[in-house]
Amino acid sequence: MAERERETLPLPPALPRASSSSSRARATALVRPGPDPLLVICRCFSFVTSLTAILCVAVNVLSAVRSFKDGSDVFDGIFRCYAVVIAFIVVVAETEWGFVIKFWKILEYWAGRGMLQIFVAVMTRAFPDYSSNQKELVLLQNIASYMLLACGLVYVISGILCIGFLKRSRQKKETTREQAVKDLEELERRREELEQLLIAERI
């Protein structure tokens, strides 16, 4: 009987592991309350803006190809090439890639980003060809330009209202919170490993 009691002595330390995992879950839930609604809305709007800018790129590429192919207006083709490059910059700016923001600091501010989008929308809408064989292309130009114009106006108005500053502030808090969660999980993992080593030494 005494030997059986000694064999069952190492079993109780399993309880702290369960409690530590539950405490870790509670601590993680406290540190990570959930996604910020403002950041979710901003990401969705940024995605829509990127798709609209990509549509502008496609429309301007088609217009440039037709201009160079027909030879009707070479200057319009060159103009469309510039529109493609600037529209591509709009797409890259929406990713908020640190490398791009570092060299084009104005794209970090929503008012500057919106003005660039309005400029691309105007370039996409400029010099429409209303010939009967290009009605579909003109329709795509109108859709792409007006959609990007609307996105640009939203960005400019939001930038004036300092919503962009509020978004960047919340982004920093979210990054700090995620780093705190990672540090907490790493600390709990090391503590559990240490507890397992102590239990193994007792056994």
From TrEMBL:
Membrane-traversing stretches: 40-65, 77-94, 106-123, 143-166
Signal peptide: none
Coiled-coil stretches noted in the UniProt entry, renumbered to this chain: 170-197
Disordered: annotated span: 1-21
Keyword Glycoprotein recorded: no
Keywords for the protein's UniProt record, in alphabetical order: Coiled coil, Membrane, Transmembrane, Transmembrane helix
Protein name per UniProt: Golgi apparatus membrane protein TVP15
Organism per entry: Populus trichocarpa (Western balsam poplar)
